[in-house]
Write a structure and sequence with these properties.
The complex is a heterodimer of chains A (429) and B (134).
Chain A lengths: L5 E3 L2 E3 L3 E2 L2 E2 L1 H4 L17 E2 L10 H13 L10 H20 L8 E4 L2 H16 L5 E5 L8 H10 L2 E5 L9 H8 L5 E5 L11 H10 L3 E5 L11 H4 L3 E5 L10 E5 L1 H6 L10 E4 L4 E3 L13 H17 L1 H22 L4 E3 L9 E5 L5 H9 L3 E2 L1 E3 L4 H6 L5 E5 L6 H19 L1
Parallel strand pairs in A: 5-17, 7-8, 7-9, 9-10, 10-11
Antiparallel strand pairs in A: 1-2, 3-4, 6-12, 11-12, 13-14, 15-16, 16-19, 18-19
Chain B lengths: L6 H8 L12 E7 L4 E10 L2 E10 L2 H14 L4 H5 L3 H8 L8 H28 L3
Antiparallel strand pairs in B: 1-2, 2-3
Helix pairs in contact in B: 1-2, 2-4, 2-5
The chains are: A alpha/beta (429), B alpha+beta (134).
Chain lengths: 429, 134
């Protein structure tokens, strides 16, 4: 890949990969926010990418281009500007499909985020397929977004939830999973990468096991698509959901991928404009997929930004992204225990972990840790990270979480270690 | 740099005043801040409209625990009417450090829990009076 920037439909996409390696220092210039400072004049050390990612110029420009150059509604106007907007919107769908190797772009449903995608499946597929006594298998490490929608569904339908437990290292107990599959669940839903532990789950194997037991599989890819190569065909999943804003795209963008025959058989989720073929006063016929599931005017600019983000990530190469973040995770797992004696780390070794390191400093509440780190410009997450049951599993109310992305560098982990030494100094005095 | 974590805040966090369980409180309430897992149980011994005894248990961040320690010192001996009149600003004054918007919930959990305990007490009294014949 050349070092020169290439101009695509989504604007400037930097070719940053040299010999398959990601040069994060060089890539940081693509992120304007990294040049900003806090009110104390300190540079931004952003270690909260699992909450939301920073946005590169290519994404910001894609959003701006829509607002400045072709700010019209899509799938409606017959004038040139509207046709241009529609073309860019659909090109974003094609880019998003390529990022996860979906067989067809029309199997990508644009939604606000992974949460909305899961709710869509829960309502549209779940209500027609989950009945009294039917079970859904989840895991103990699910984000609330892949837990609460299923709680509501089984409460309504009088079904059951079962949970795959985890080991103390934060790995799923596949032996228990196998036993739970004997219950012949209708659906198995699990996260690809844990947002607290960072665990990368063996999704292909788990999907094969579920299919052998006659269950469909939904995978929450919110923490996977931005960080590891994802191939939905190789995994063999039935539903795969992810958010745009965690993969360098704007908030308000996201996607559901599902196999065509599932989407075609499912009733609409939200109803309104754009999702219909024809409407009469007392009945309507649905549009084809994906538009059947995209009622009303979507967040057009955000989805265009998601297309640009997908192109940006593919230009880097997801293998290079994964190598970079595994290196960062390994570095953090080595540096933090050495610098902060007694620190409690959660989750598996770096080779089984995405760019996420959650921990606790004994005797100091995570909020106090985050507050002191904030004084040095370090942005870090403190709390339960929308995984309260997982924190209960470890018998803690909260944890501190550092999470990485393509623009994260080792020096920021050094800054974190220095900040944590200050935490220990203040609370130890 | 450590504006928020002054020595007296950390002292109240490490060795909170009035920390423990009250034997037979007339009013009690468990408050929590689900976002960060702060938890405080306030126990009050109210007699003749005056807070004679107060104790709390809980776990959480330095701000929430120091706030509870300072507030319990403050309300001991005050009348219920005086305590009811206390405002969030009064608690922030007790803490005496600048609290950022994200930490207000931590700082004010103690007052919120006391207010709930008092409301609980008032409800019990109203019930008791309602049950009294005549």
């Amino acid at each position: 890949m050349s070092d020169t920037a290439t101009k695509g439909v989504h604007g400037t996409v930097p070719a940053v990969s040299r010999a398959g390696r990601l040069d994060a220092h060089r890539l940081r210039s693509d992120f304007p926010i990294l040049t900003t400072t806090n009110s104390h004049g300190q540079p931004l050390v952003y270690l909260d990418s699992a909450a939301t990612s920073l946005k590169p110029l290519a994404v910001i420009e894609a959003v701006n281009r829509y607002n400045r150059e072709y700010s019209s509604n899509i799938h409606r106007g017959i004038y040139e500007m509207a046709e241009q907007a529609t073309a860019v919107y659909e090109a974003a769908r094609a880019s998003t499909a390529r990022l996860i190797n979906a067989p067809e772009a029309s199997e990508i449903i644009f939604v606000r985020n992974a949460t909305e995608a899961i709710n869509l499946v829960g309502h549209s597929w779940g209500r027609g397929h989950i009945g009294r006594g039917d079970s859904i298998v989840l895991t103990e490490m699910e984000h609330h977004a892949n837990l609460v929608p299923w709680q509501l569904l089984v409460q309504e339908k009088d079904g059951d939830l079962e949970f795959v437990p985890i080991t103390d290292d934060g790995l799923l107990r596949l032996d228990v999973y196998e036993v739970l599959l004997h219950l012949r669940p209708k659906l198995v839903a699990f996260t690809h990468v844990s947002n607290m532990l960072g665990t990368i789950n063996p999704v292909r194997q788990m999907t094969e096991m579920a299919h052998a037991a006659g269950a469909l599989v939904l995978i929450d890819g919110a923490q996977a698509v931005p960080h590891v190569p994802v191939d939905v065909q190789e995994i063999g999943a039935d539903f795969y959901v992810f958010s745009g804003h965690k993969m360098l795209a704007p908030t308000g963008s996201g996607a559901l991928w599902a196999r065509r025959e599932l989407l075609e058989a499912m009733p609409p989720f939200l109803a309104g404009g754009d999702m219909i073929r024809e409407v009469h006063l007392r009945r309507a016929e649905w549009n084809e997929i994906p538009w059947k599931f995209e009622a009303g005017t979507p967040d057009i600019a955000a989805q265009m930004g998601m297309g640009a983000a997908a192109e940006y990530l593919m230009a880097i190469g997801m293998d290079a992204v994964r190598d970079h973040e595994q290196d960062l995770a390994g570095y953090a797992l080595e540096v933090l225990p050495r610098e902060i004696p007694g620190i409690v780390l959660y989750g598996p070794a770096a080779d089984r972990r995405g760019g996420v390191v959650a921990f606790n400093v004994p005797g100091v509440h995570p909020h106090d840790v985050a507050q002191i780190l904030d004084r040095t410009g370090i942005c870090i997450r403190a709390g339960h990270h929308c995984t309260m049951p997982l924190h209960e599993r470890f018998d803690i109310a909260a944890s501190v979480r550092a999470s990485f992305n393509v623009y994260t560098v080792r020096e920021e982990i050094d800054a974190l270690a220095a900040g944590l030494r200050e935490v220990v100094r203040i609370f130890g005095r | 740099m450590d504006d928020l974590y002054r020595d007296y805040i950390l002292d109240h966090y490490r060795r909170p005043h009035n920390f423990g369980v009250l034997d037979g409180p007339t009013a009690s309430y468990e408050g929590s801040n689900p976002l960060c897992g702060d938890r405080i149980t306030m126990m009050l011994g109210i007699d003749d409209g005056v807070v004679r005894e107060v104790a709390f248990t809980g776990r959480g961040c330095a701000i929430s625990q120091a706030s509870a320690s300072l507030l319990t010192d403050e309300i001991k001996g005050k009348t219920v009417a005086e305590v009811e009149k206390m405002t969030p600003d009064d608690v922030l004054d007790l803490l005496g450090v600048e609290i950022s918007p994200a930490r207000l919930k931590c700082a004010l959990l103690s007052l919120d829990t006391v207010a709930h305990a008092l409301a609980d007490d008032a409800r019990k009294q109203a019930q008791a009076e309602g049950q009294t014949p005549g």
